[in-house]
Design goal:
Alpha-D-Glucose-1,6-Bisphosphate, Chain A, domain 4, 2 domains, three-stranded antiparallel β-sheet, 24% helix
Length: 234
Amino acid sequence: MKTEIRKSSKNRWLKPKSSKKVLITLNLLPVKKAGDLTVNLICLTLFLSSTNIIASEKEEWTLKIQQDGIAVYTKKVAGSRIDAFKATTMISAEYEKVKEVILDYPNYPKWYQDYKAGEILEQTHQDEIVVRFIINAPFPIKDRDSVNRVYVRQTDEHIEVILESAPTFIPRNKKQIRMTISSGRWTLEKEGNQTRVTLEYHADPEIPVPSWVSNRYVVQGPAKSLSNLKKRLQ
């Protein structure tokens, strides 16, 4: 006697050795499991994010101003209406002295353009601290503040002061608007008795003005700050 097997997408009919038919219900898995789909979505997100980062890194710096030994460049940043800037100059001072001033955050208002206050919130290590700045905004716009984790990397010829945005480190307050995008780095390079100082930064103060107005400050602010830094050290 022949055995019949009938298949459907949900059920299978099997005829065993006995003459009675037995219904076996199978829960068939979809082509892709939910876990597989989640992994794929994560991979896609990471891919798109890395694509934006690579596009930003490949963007070339454009010289915007060069005066009094200070050069300021800008470049577009993927997904942002505000340009990143790179400001560089040569300072006649030992780079340890320059580092000391750059890490003296409470005194930033004395030389960094439009900074109203700077404070150290936490120092977890000699070369790792958390700082907060208050940035002056034109009336009637609220002042901005930013919170950054700071890491210092140093060799005999080179110092990097890296600032990473940490907007949730402390609660926000009603007096200022917290900047969620604010990160960059200082690079100090020893050249004889002088120091090549470079500041690269990207921040979005989220001020409701046209981007061309904000991007003008992206050039003027760093130029004025490095000029003040030179006067403070030379």
